[in-house]
Specification:
- The protein has helices spanning 2-9, 39-46, 50-56, 87-104, 157-181, 186-196, 199-202, and strands at residues 13-14, 17-18, 21-22, 26-27, 73-76, 79-82, 114-115, 131-132, 135-136, 138-139, 142-145, 148-151.
- It is of the alpha+beta class.
- The chain folds into two domains: 39-154, no CATH class; 157-202.
- The strands form six sheets. Strands 1-4 form a two-stranded antiparallel sheet. It has a two-stranded antiparallel ribbon with strand order 2-3. Strands 5-6 form a two-stranded antiparallel ribbon.
- β5 (73-76) and β6 form a beta hairpin.
- α5 (157-181) runs antiparallel to α6 (186-196).
- The longest helix is centred in the C-terminal third of the chain and has 25 residues, at 157-181.
- The chain is globular, with a radius of gyration of 22 Å.
- Pfam families: RVT_1.
């Protein structure tokens, strides 16, 4: 299995699609293959010890229910969310994560790294500042995790607005395709709607 993965990742070439066409071929020396079914499994294997390291950091995490371990982080593929119940506990989680990144020679995209403080309004206190690699992290009112927007007041206005815009875009695409094909087949329209529009508002509906 290891030799197979070495062959797959030994010489990866890629091109970038632009408005002017495809770019020149270049070599990819980092990250996993985008769109590959193995990718969501390879990265978690690589950072398997991260949850253990974060668990060693001081702090209780978030209580879910009795007889269930408190949640200290959410991790899916290369998307990570650190969770803490106090500002100092979050900074300690970040410190543990920073040491782990140094150990595995990983880099973090700081442009996509934000802090969301869940509170019912009010200004941030002086101690509500967090650093990673000596860089101050941005505190935002909402952020996206796995396609769902979470607000600092746990309201779903931004999320619903985004999903509605995505539905409208998909619906307009269906209309354009059917007009281009010169058809008004109702059954075809319903099938396209069920496959292109309907899944969008249901995504994350459990939340």
């Amino acid at each position: 299995m290891i030799k197979l993965l070495q062959n797959i990742y030994g010489n990866i070439k890629a091109k970038v699609k632009t408005t002017d066409g495809l770019s020149e071929t270049f070599t990819c020396n980092s990250a996993v293959r985008k769109g590959c079914t193995l990718s969501p499994w390879l990265f978690p294997m690589y950072i398997n010890e991260l949850a253990i390291e974060i668990g060693k950091s001081i702090g209780n995490g978030i209580f879910i229910y009795e007889n269930f371990q408190n949640v200290m982080l959410l991790l899916f593929a290369d998307d990570l969310a650190l969770i803490a119940d106090t500002p100092i506990h979050l900074q300690r989680r970040l410190n543990s994560f920073e040491k782990y990144c140094e150990k595995l020679n990983m880099t973090v995209n700081m442009d996509k790294s934000n802090i969301v403080v869940l509170k019912n309004g009010g200004e941030l206190s002086k101690n509500e500042e967090w650093y990673f690699n000596n860089e101050l992290l941005k505190v935002v009112s909402y952020d996206k995790y796995l396609g769902i927007y979470f607000s600092n007041r746990l309201k779903w206005t931004c999320c619903c607005k985004t999903l509605r815009m995505q539905c409208e875009k998909a619906l307009n695409m269906i209309k354009h395709c059917m007009c281009k094909l010169g058809t008004r087949n109702i059954n075809l329209g319903f099938k396209l709607f069920d496959s292109m529009v309907a899944p969008t508002p249901y995504y994350g509906a459990e939340l």
